[in-house]
Amino acid sequence: MRNLIIRQVNSLSRRAYSAYLGSEIENAKPFSEMPTISFLKMVKESIPGGKYYKKSIKEVLQAFNEEFGEAVRIPAMLGNPEVVMSYNSEYFERILRAEGNWPVRTGLDSLEYYRDTKRPEIYKDLGSLFVSHGEKWSSMRSIANPILMQPKTIKKYTTQVDDIAKEFIEVMRKIRNDKSEMPGDFSNYINTWSLESVTAVGLERRLNLFDENTHDENAKKLIKGIRDFFEMTAEYDGKASVWKYYQTKGFKELLNVYDTLTDVILHYIDQAIKEMNESSSSSDAEDSVLRKLLRADKRVAVIVVSDLMLAGVDTTASAVLNTLYCLAKNPEKQEILRQELINILPEKNSKLTTENNKNMPYLRAVIKEAMRLYPVVSGNVRQTTKEIVVSEYRIPANTHVALQFYIDLLNEKYYPDPMKFLPERWLRDQSDGDVKAGVANPFSFLPFGFGVRSCIGKRIAELELETLVVNVIRNFKVEWHYPEMKIKSTFVNIPDSEMRFKVIDV
Ligand code: HEM
């Protein structure tokens, strides 16, 4: 009943909505009455023998929800601000609409610290997309938006991204064993594909990572650095850590990882500048992402490209693996997709173009449904700029609220048969009997975030992800003959099983 009222309220006109919120605020319970985890309990449960000890971020968040309900306060500790965990997506719209012009999303303080203090010659006065706030973030985003969010600029990479996907298909043919299965470390191969694709866009360069004879030490450092970044920030930023008071050996290693990544990206950018100066360029090349960034400033290019690498490699890799897993487990859906693709690409090696990739509704529905069942990012954070009511409690302005999406993504109320992989729920033209998507609450599903701070790499991610899935399914029947895939949750949810897909030529 309460959720029904909130839904009705969310659909009111702006004026009526403000009036309702005014009275709702007056009637709400004070913030001090919201369930709160005490500092002592947090410490007790985080040491050996405690409930949160050695648990992943997601497991700890689930434990909070089970014990305290749909909203709970986590106290400020070890230099981190207080955060409200919100588990009911009915409130997400109002939390996100209270984000203001310069939304604050905390979470990666270690990177912010590194950039502010360790390499001032690059980072000092410039903001980062990923971790800065306020005016510094806004200035950088204003430079990057017209470059990265413009469909025209990203579409230009279609052929190149398709070529990389086609090369990867040959890699898959080569690495499958005599049972036609991918090796246990297939996730690493997908990561390599993801890095190869994102550098083709961001650094205007092929790293040739599929070539065993390539001994590019910098490329190896890049792959390792990005992986270490995810593992280590889950410890130092995702959980309570003392680094703001005392820098442990492990934390210093993380700073070294950041340094290595900065140096490698600087190296590639210098190389790209040299090559650009040496060669005459076409007007198409002048329009490239890197050239546009360099026209702003070399340091801007270093920062934005670093952000693209850190945010774009593991996320896209995870989305591909999850999508292939869903298709392998649901062969009849895989067949529907293949039929759609055969119509568009009559030959297995037909090229994807900006024209023929427009009409693939089932592919898009498949990817969306895989992201619902296996969200790559299962939460988001915003600092509120005004007083709002969440789960019957009055939350003051300037509070950090963490939106936990993953619970309602499996909620029967929004997604009938929630555990089933049903791409049809996302199709505009549905047949009788198709299950409808969660149109009742679009804020329950925001895989690329929301508003002015949403994922700036969305277009690149979609191009890469769609292109690889198209090529794999057009070439292979993909099967899964192992127990359920396990997920490891750092800041990104990453498959934690050996991804031994069986791939049979079609
Ligand atoms: C399937 C793949 C991906 C998913 C699910 C994803 C998801 C997200 C989400 C949820 C956010 C936070 C948005 C918010 O706070 O509202 C984000 C931010 C960001 N993403 Fe992605 N992302 C993906 C791929 C990429 C790629 C390929 C790139 C770059 C090439 C990228 C670059 C970024 C950057 C730089 C930010 C920070 C933007 C800002 O705060 O201004 N992402 N992404």
Structure description:
This protein is α+β, with helices and mostly antiparallel strands and 506 residues long. The chain has one domain (2-505): Cytochrome p450, CATH 1.10.630. 51% of the residues lie in helices and 8% in strands. It contains 19 helices and ten strands. The strands form four sheets. It has a four-stranded mixed β-sheet. Strands 4-5 form a two-stranded antiparallel sheet. Helix 10 (158-175) packs across helix 19, helix 11 (186-202) packs antiparallel against helix 16 (298-329) and helix 15 packs antiparallel against helix 16 (298-329). The longest helix is centred in the middle third of the chain and has 32 residues, at 298-329. It is globular, with a radius of gyration of 23 Å. The model has no long low-confidence stretch (mean pLDDT 89). Bound molecules: protoporphyrin IX containing FE. Protoporphyrin IX containing FE binds at residues 105, 129-130, 141, 198, 307-308, 311-312, 315-316, 319, 376-377, 380, 447-450, 453-457, 460-461, 465.
